[in-house]
Amino acid sequence: MKILKNCGGQVSIEFIILVGAIMIMVVAVFPYITRANELSKAHAAARDGATFAAGMRGMGYRADDVNELPPGIVKITKVEMVNVGSKGNRTHYQFNIHILAPEYMIDDPTCTKSSVGVSVIRQALKYVCYSFYGDWSRDECTPFNVNTTRYYFTATCTFE
Amino acid sequence: MRAQISIEVALMTGMAILVIVSLVNIQFERFNMARELGEAGEARMIGTLIAGAINNAYANGEGFQVYLSPEQVNFTRLGEVEKMYGLGVELPITINNTAREIVIRRNTTKTGGGIWSVEVPIIPNNVVRRDPSAEYPELTVRNNGTNILIYADAAHITTVS
Hints:
The complex is a heterodimer.
Chain A: H1 2-58, E1 62-63, E2 75-87, E3 90-100, H2 115-133, E4 145-147, E5 151-159
Parallel strand pairs in A: 3-5
Antiparallel strand pairs in A: 2-3, 4-5
Helix pairs in contact in A: 1-2
Chain B: H1 2-60, E1 65-67, H2 75-79, E2 93-96, E3 101-107, E4 115-121, E5 127-130, E6 140-143, E7 148-151, E8 157-160
Protein backbone atom coordinates (compact mmCIF):
# COMPACT_ATOMS: atom_id res chain seq x y z
CA MET A 1 0.00 0.00 0.00
CA LYS A 2 2.84 2.35 0.87
CA ILE A 3 4.57 1.70 -2.46
CA LEU A 4 1.39 2.37 -4.37
CA LYS A 5 0.83 5.65 -2.57
CA ASN A 6 4.38 6.81 -3.37
CA CYS A 7 4.01 5.80 -6.97
CA GLY A 8 0.73 7.72 -7.26
CA GLY A 9 2.36 10.84 -5.89
CA GLN A 10 5.28 10.54 -8.31
CA VAL A 11 2.98 10.32 -11.30
CA SER A 12 0.91 13.31 -10.32
CA ILE A 13 4.00 15.51 -9.85
CA GLU A 14 5.28 14.50 -13.30
CA PHE A 15 1.88 15.17 -14.73
CA ILE A 16 1.70 18.57 -13.08
CA ILE A 17 5.14 19.47 -14.48
CA LEU A 18 4.17 18.26 -17.94
CA VAL A 19 0.83 20.05 -17.94
CA GLY A 20 2.51 23.16 -16.58
CA ALA A 21 5.06 23.07 -19.41
CA ILE A 22 2.29 22.63 -21.99
CA MET A 23 0.39 25.52 -20.47
CA ILE A 24 3.43 27.78 -20.63
CA MET A 25 3.96 26.83 -24.27
CA VAL A 26 0.30 27.43 -25.12
CA VAL A 27 0.25 30.80 -23.38
CA ALA A 28 3.51 31.81 -25.09
CA VAL A 29 2.33 30.78 -28.56
CA PHE A 30 -1.21 32.11 -28.18
CA PRO A 31 -0.55 35.68 -29.42
CA TYR A 32 1.30 34.37 -32.49
CA ILE A 33 -1.53 31.99 -33.29
CA THR A 34 -4.06 34.81 -32.93
CA ARG A 35 -2.10 37.05 -35.31
CA ALA A 36 -1.49 34.31 -37.84
CA ASN A 37 -5.17 33.44 -37.70
CA GLU A 38 -6.16 37.07 -38.33
CA LEU A 39 -3.82 37.40 -41.28
CA SER A 40 -4.97 34.14 -42.77
CA LYS A 41 -8.59 35.23 -42.32
CA ALA A 42 -7.90 38.57 -44.03
CA HIS A 43 -6.13 36.86 -46.92
CA ALA A 44 -8.97 34.40 -47.46
CA ALA A 45 -11.55 37.20 -47.27
CA ALA A 46 -9.66 39.35 -49.79
CA ARG A 47 -9.52 36.42 -52.19
CA ASP A 48 -13.26 35.80 -51.77
CA GLY A 49 -14.13 39.46 -52.31
CA ALA A 50 -11.94 39.73 -55.38
CA THR A 51 -13.46 36.55 -56.82
CA PHE A 52 -16.98 37.87 -56.17
CA ALA A 53 -16.23 41.14 -57.97
CA ALA A 54 -14.61 39.26 -60.85
CA GLY A 55 -17.70 37.07 -61.16
CA MET A 56 -20.08 40.04 -61.11
CA ARG A 57 -17.94 41.98 -63.57
CA GLY A 58 -17.69 38.93 -65.78
CA MET A 59 -21.47 38.81 -66.00
CA GLY A 60 -21.54 42.48 -66.97
CA TYR A 61 -22.66 43.88 -63.62
CA ARG A 62 -21.22 47.14 -62.38
CA ALA A 63 -21.63 49.45 -59.40
CA ASP A 64 -23.44 52.74 -60.02
CA ASP A 65 -20.31 54.90 -60.04
CA VAL A 66 -18.26 52.59 -62.26
CA ASN A 67 -18.18 52.53 -66.06
CA GLU A 68 -20.40 50.18 -68.02
CA LEU A 69 -18.47 47.39 -69.67
CA PRO A 70 -19.49 44.44 -71.79
CA PRO A 71 -19.43 41.03 -70.11
CA GLY A 72 -16.33 38.89 -70.43
CA ILE A 73 -14.13 36.42 -68.64
CA VAL A 74 -12.48 38.01 -65.62
CA LYS A 75 -10.25 35.85 -63.46
CA ILE A 76 -8.30 36.43 -60.29
CA THR A 77 -5.05 34.56 -60.83
CA LYS A 78 -3.26 35.45 -57.62
CA VAL A 79 -3.80 37.40 -54.40
CA GLU A 80 -0.59 38.17 -52.54
CA MET A 81 -0.47 39.68 -49.08
CA VAL A 82 2.67 41.77 -48.64
CA ASN A 83 3.95 43.45 -45.49
CA VAL A 84 4.79 46.99 -46.61
CA GLY A 85 5.79 48.45 -43.25
CA SER A 86 3.69 50.12 -40.62
CA LYS A 87 0.96 52.72 -40.46
CA GLY A 88 0.94 54.36 -37.05
CA ASN A 89 1.01 51.52 -34.56
CA ARG A 90 -0.45 49.05 -37.04
CA THR A 91 1.31 46.72 -39.43
CA HIS A 92 0.50 47.66 -43.01
CA TYR A 93 -0.38 44.76 -45.29
CA GLN A 94 -1.18 45.25 -48.97
CA PHE A 95 -3.06 42.79 -51.12
CA ASN A 96 -1.62 42.57 -54.61
CA ILE A 97 -4.41 41.22 -56.77
CA HIS A 98 -3.51 39.83 -60.19
CA ILE A 99 -6.38 40.06 -62.67
CA LEU A 100 -6.79 38.40 -66.01
CA ALA A 101 -9.32 40.25 -68.19
CA PRO A 102 -9.88 40.59 -71.95
CA GLU A 103 -8.45 43.72 -73.60
CA TYR A 104 -11.85 45.19 -74.39
CA MET A 105 -12.70 45.28 -70.69
CA ILE A 106 -9.54 47.15 -69.73
CA ASP A 107 -10.64 50.78 -69.96
CA ASP A 108 -7.46 52.06 -68.27
CA PRO A 109 -4.05 50.37 -68.42
CA THR A 110 -3.46 51.32 -64.78
CA CYS A 111 -5.33 48.57 -63.00
CA THR A 112 -6.24 50.64 -59.94
CA LYS A 113 -7.93 53.21 -62.22
CA SER A 114 -9.72 50.71 -64.42
CA SER A 115 -13.37 49.81 -63.86
CA VAL A 116 -12.60 46.14 -63.29
CA GLY A 117 -9.71 46.92 -60.94
CA VAL A 118 -11.75 49.39 -58.88
CA SER A 119 -14.59 46.87 -58.46
CA VAL A 120 -12.20 44.08 -57.47
CA ILE A 121 -10.24 46.17 -54.96
CA ARG A 122 -13.34 47.62 -53.33
CA GLN A 123 -15.00 44.26 -52.95
CA ALA A 124 -11.85 42.58 -51.64
CA LEU A 125 -11.54 45.18 -48.89
CA LYS A 126 -15.25 44.99 -48.11
CA TYR A 127 -14.91 41.27 -47.52
CA VAL A 128 -11.87 41.88 -45.31
CA CYS A 129 -13.96 44.37 -43.32
CA TYR A 130 -16.75 41.81 -42.91
CA SER A 131 -14.35 39.09 -41.83
CA PHE A 132 -13.14 41.25 -38.93
CA TYR A 133 -16.26 43.12 -37.90
CA GLY A 134 -19.14 40.97 -39.19
CA ASP A 135 -20.44 44.14 -40.84
CA TRP A 136 -20.08 45.48 -44.38
CA SER A 137 -19.77 49.14 -43.55
CA ARG A 138 -17.89 50.43 -40.52
CA ASP A 139 -15.98 53.58 -39.71
CA GLU A 140 -12.83 51.46 -39.73
CA CYS A 141 -13.45 50.44 -43.34
CA THR A 142 -13.24 52.68 -46.40
CA PRO A 143 -13.17 51.69 -50.09
CA PHE A 144 -9.36 52.06 -49.92
CA ASN A 145 -8.34 50.59 -46.56
CA VAL A 146 -9.42 48.56 -43.56
CA ASN A 147 -8.20 49.28 -40.05
CA THR A 148 -8.14 46.60 -37.38
CA THR A 149 -6.62 46.58 -33.91
CA ARG A 150 -3.29 45.35 -35.22
CA TYR A 151 -3.37 45.78 -38.98
CA TYR A 152 -3.92 48.32 -41.73
CA PHE A 153 -4.98 46.66 -44.98
CA THR A 154 -4.90 48.19 -48.45
CA ALA A 155 -5.14 46.65 -51.90
CA THR A 156 -3.73 47.21 -55.33
CA CYS A 157 -4.00 45.27 -58.58
CA THR A 158 -2.18 44.48 -61.80
CA PHE A 159 -3.41 43.15 -65.11
CA GLU A 160 -1.74 40.03 -66.43
CA MET B 1 -4.40 18.34 -10.39
CA ARG B 2 -8.04 18.74 -11.31
CA ALA B 3 -7.66 22.50 -11.25
CA GLN B 4 -4.56 22.19 -13.48
CA ILE B 5 -6.45 20.21 -16.08
CA SER B 6 -9.43 22.52 -16.12
CA ILE B 7 -7.22 25.58 -16.73
CA GLU B 8 -5.68 23.82 -19.70
CA VAL B 9 -9.09 22.82 -20.99
CA ALA B 10 -10.26 26.40 -20.62
CA LEU B 11 -7.27 27.65 -22.61
CA MET B 12 -7.76 25.11 -25.35
CA THR B 13 -11.48 25.82 -25.49
CA GLY B 14 -10.68 29.52 -25.73
CA MET B 15 -8.40 28.91 -28.68
CA ALA B 16 -10.95 26.69 -30.37
CA ILE B 17 -13.65 29.33 -29.91
CA LEU B 18 -11.33 31.98 -31.35
CA VAL B 19 -10.66 29.93 -34.46
CA ILE B 20 -14.31 28.91 -34.89
CA VAL B 21 -15.59 32.48 -34.48
CA SER B 22 -13.14 33.74 -37.07
CA LEU B 23 -14.23 30.98 -39.43
CA VAL B 24 -17.92 31.82 -38.97
CA ASN B 25 -17.54 35.20 -40.69
CA ILE B 26 -15.60 33.62 -43.56
CA GLN B 27 -18.28 30.96 -43.81
CA PHE B 28 -21.04 33.60 -44.01
CA GLU B 29 -19.04 35.51 -46.60
CA ARG B 30 -18.69 32.45 -48.77
CA PHE B 31 -22.34 31.59 -48.40
CA ASN B 32 -23.30 35.15 -49.33
CA MET B 33 -20.88 35.16 -52.24
CA ALA B 34 -22.29 31.94 -53.69
CA ARG B 35 -25.84 33.19 -53.21
CA GLU B 36 -25.15 36.62 -54.70
CA LEU B 37 -23.38 35.22 -57.75
CA GLY B 38 -26.15 32.71 -58.35
CA GLU B 39 -28.87 35.34 -58.00
CA ALA B 40 -26.94 37.78 -60.18
CA GLY B 41 -26.68 35.15 -62.90
CA GLU B 42 -30.40 34.38 -62.66
CA ALA B 43 -31.30 38.09 -62.77
CA ARG B 44 -29.20 38.55 -65.87
CA MET B 45 -30.89 35.52 -67.43
CA ILE B 46 -34.29 37.15 -66.81
CA GLY B 47 -33.02 40.22 -68.68
CA THR B 48 -31.83 38.01 -71.52
CA LEU B 49 -35.20 36.25 -71.60
CA ILE B 50 -37.13 39.52 -71.89
CA ALA B 51 -34.63 40.85 -74.44
CA GLY B 52 -35.06 37.64 -76.47
CA ALA B 53 -38.85 38.08 -76.47
CA ILE B 54 -38.56 41.73 -77.56
CA ASN B 55 -36.06 40.92 -80.31
CA ASN B 56 -38.22 38.02 -81.55
CA ALA B 57 -41.33 40.19 -81.67
CA TYR B 58 -39.36 42.84 -83.54
CA ALA B 59 -37.77 40.41 -85.99
CA ASN B 60 -40.93 38.47 -86.81
CA GLY B 61 -43.02 41.50 -87.76
CA GLU B 62 -46.55 42.69 -87.19
CA GLY B 63 -48.87 40.43 -85.25
CA PHE B 64 -46.13 38.31 -83.71
CA GLN B 65 -46.34 37.92 -79.97
CA VAL B 66 -44.47 36.10 -77.24
CA TYR B 67 -45.90 35.20 -73.86
CA LEU B 68 -43.58 34.77 -70.90
CA SER B 69 -45.46 32.92 -68.18
CA PRO B 70 -45.09 33.61 -64.42
CA GLU B 71 -43.04 30.41 -64.25
CA GLN B 72 -40.53 32.07 -66.57
CA VAL B 73 -40.64 35.60 -65.20
CA ASN B 74 -41.96 35.75 -61.64
CA PHE B 75 -41.88 39.37 -60.48
CA THR B 76 -42.65 38.49 -56.84
CA ARG B 77 -39.59 36.31 -56.76
CA LEU B 78 -37.55 38.83 -58.73
CA GLY B 79 -38.27 41.70 -56.35
CA GLU B 80 -37.87 39.78 -53.09
CA VAL B 81 -34.73 40.95 -51.29
CA GLU B 82 -34.61 39.20 -47.93
CA LYS B 83 -36.00 35.73 -48.45
CA MET B 84 -33.91 32.95 -49.88
CA TYR B 85 -36.03 32.47 -53.01
CA GLY B 86 -35.75 36.16 -53.98
CA LEU B 87 -33.40 37.60 -56.56
CA GLY B 88 -33.14 41.10 -55.08
CA VAL B 89 -33.89 42.88 -58.36
CA GLU B 90 -35.00 46.49 -58.04
CA LEU B 91 -38.37 46.84 -59.71
CA PRO B 92 -39.45 48.20 -62.10
CA ILE B 93 -37.03 46.84 -64.64
CA THR B 94 -36.15 49.65 -67.05
CA ILE B 95 -36.22 49.32 -70.81
CA ASN B 96 -34.13 52.17 -72.19
CA ASN B 97 -35.15 52.84 -75.80
CA THR B 98 -32.40 55.38 -76.47
CA ALA B 99 -29.62 53.09 -75.31
CA ARG B 100 -31.49 50.05 -76.66
CA GLU B 101 -31.01 48.04 -73.52
CA ILE B 102 -32.78 46.46 -70.59
CA VAL B 103 -31.34 47.61 -67.28
CA ILE B 104 -31.42 45.13 -64.41
CA ARG B 105 -30.50 46.65 -61.06
CA ARG B 106 -29.73 44.44 -58.08
CA ASN B 107 -29.62 45.52 -54.49
CA THR B 108 -26.64 43.79 -52.94
CA THR B 109 -26.21 46.10 -49.97
CA LYS B 110 -26.80 43.25 -47.53
CA THR B 111 -23.63 41.64 -48.83
CA GLY B 112 -21.66 44.85 -49.12
CA GLY B 113 -21.97 45.26 -52.85
CA GLY B 114 -24.20 48.31 -53.13
CA ILE B 115 -26.40 48.60 -56.20
CA TRP B 116 -25.05 46.64 -59.13
CA SER B 117 -26.62 46.92 -62.54
CA VAL B 118 -26.31 45.04 -65.77
CA GLU B 119 -27.47 46.10 -69.23
CA VAL B 120 -28.82 43.58 -71.71
CA PRO B 121 -28.88 44.92 -75.30
CA ILE B 122 -32.04 44.83 -77.45
CA ILE B 123 -32.54 45.60 -81.14
CA PRO B 124 -35.64 47.87 -81.31
CA ASN B 125 -35.84 51.39 -79.90
CA ASN B 126 -39.61 51.60 -79.87
CA VAL B 127 -40.68 49.45 -76.93
CA VAL B 128 -43.85 50.72 -75.25
CA ARG B 129 -45.34 49.44 -72.00
CA ARG B 130 -49.05 48.71 -71.76
CA ASP B 131 -51.12 47.55 -68.80
CA PRO B 132 -51.86 43.83 -69.00
CA SER B 133 -55.39 42.76 -69.95
CA ALA B 134 -57.37 39.55 -70.25
CA GLU B 135 -56.39 39.37 -73.90
CA TYR B 136 -52.74 40.21 -73.26
CA PRO B 137 -51.71 38.99 -69.80
CA GLU B 138 -48.47 39.88 -68.11
CA LEU B 139 -45.84 39.33 -69.61
CA THR B 140 -46.80 39.45 -73.28
CA VAL B 141 -44.58 41.08 -75.89
CA ARG B 142 -46.34 41.97 -79.15
CA ASN B 143 -45.45 43.67 -82.41
CA ASN B 144 -48.39 45.84 -83.52
CA GLY B 145 -46.65 47.01 -86.69
CA THR B 146 -45.67 50.37 -85.20
CA ASN B 147 -44.21 49.56 -81.78
CA ILE B 148 -43.15 46.65 -79.70
CA LEU B 149 -45.72 46.50 -76.94
CA ILE B 150 -44.84 44.91 -73.64
CA TYR B 151 -47.80 44.17 -71.40
CA ALA B 152 -46.69 44.49 -67.81
CA ASP B 153 -47.63 46.26 -64.60
CA ALA B 154 -46.02 49.71 -64.23
CA ALA B 155 -44.49 48.52 -60.96
CA HIS B 156 -42.75 45.70 -62.78
CA ILE B 157 -41.50 47.19 -66.05
CA THR B 158 -41.03 50.75 -67.21
CA THR B 159 -39.82 52.17 -70.50
CA VAL B 160 -37.79 55.32 -70.99
CA SER B 161 -36.88 57.12 -74.18
